[in-house]
Amino acid sequence: MRAILVGVQKKGETKSEAYASLNELAGLVEAVNGKVLGKILQKRDIPDPSTYIGRGKVEDLNLLVQGTKADTVVFDDPLTPSQVKELEKRLRARVMDRTDLVLEIFTRRARTKEAKLQVELAKLQHELPRLYGKGKALSRQAGGIGGRGPGEQEAEIRRRILKKRIHKIKEELEEVKKRRREQRKRRIKEVSKEGNFIRVAIVGYTNVGKSTLMKALTGRDVFKKDMLFATLDTTTSSRFVYPDTKLLFTDTVGFINKLPTELIEAFKATLEEIQEADLILHVIDATDPKWLEKIETVNGILKKLNLEKVPQILVFNKVDRLISSPDEVQYLDHSMMVGEYPNIYVSAERKWNIENLLRLIVETAKREKEETETTY
Question: What phi and psi values does residue 7 have, to the nearest 5 degrees?
């Protein structure tokens, strides 16, 4: 993929925010082994219904596409079927939006049957509403007044096939949910024999080091790579911190800004693991200048999943890029609070401050349990 990226600075959005979103889009392109050849940012309050960016900007974009020999143009926002069709006709290149790109990444990353089902469901749910626009467009091309044109008939057949497949996948995912619940029950039953246990979910923006932290906390070897959405599958592992206390850690898929609703819906079978958690470890890249905005993005998605009331610990990771030794961790500002959440600085890669994090998990979970018992 040789891509040109297109973004729109909307009303109420700063130029810096718009560019940050475009830069993240560039990371998504690189995640599918693509190359970014150029970027265009336009300030526009209302998207053009035909081309999203307007005819004049399309001409500028066309010159850039032809000059760089790009084969793909990726828009940072959702496009309608008619916009995609019009843009592809004018640009003579493949046109995608952010959702298409994220779905492409997920398709390539999915390994287990469950992940593949969830990605397929998201793709079908994304395609279904687009068929309505395509059917009408094809019908208009066929001409005639009244009745259904061949385009609408073809689209209707395709819609029925998609709806049937969506229904089938949802049934299969419900079975997955049931199996997961049974596995959790068995896991909890086994663990409860060994003493107290605390269920901990690891969440965060994509590429902040969640899988690396999982390995540092549990010793379990997991796939990790410096790329967006390196892992899609949920894994659970455990660790004793005291003779009578066991921690169950669950790693989850990473989040991004403008995460497509279809993906949130499709991955609910996986994200249901978080709903069982006693505590959330919200991992943040300590070197990221946009860390606060990304905390808000993750919390926004957690709210959509009705998880905003689950207690959190903010884990600022990758501090080895800011300091030269573990002794210097104590000099970082631990007094900062984001909302009511405690925070801690670690290096998952070098295992700096991991023991203190384990103690904080146990203390926080114990305090939350005591407060809950007092309330009730």
Answer: -130, 160
Number of helices followed by number of strands (H, E) in the chain = 11, 10
Per residue in 16-73, pLDDT (tens digit) is 889 989 998 999 999 889 999 999 999 998 889 999 999 999 999 999 999 999 999 9
Asked whether the beta carbons of 315 and 213 are under 8 A apart, the reply is: yes
Token duo for residue 57: 């900007």
Burial class (CB in 10 A: 0-12, 13-18, 19+), 368: middle
Residue range 81-90, pLDDT digits in tens: 889 999 999 9
Helix %, strand %, coil % of the chain (to 5): 50, 20, 30
Q: pTM of whole model > 0.70?
A: yes
Contacts of 74 (CB under 8 A, 6+ apart): 3, 4, 5, 6, 25, 29, 95, 96, 97, 98, 100, 101
Count CA atoms within 13 Å of residue 254 on its CB side.
27
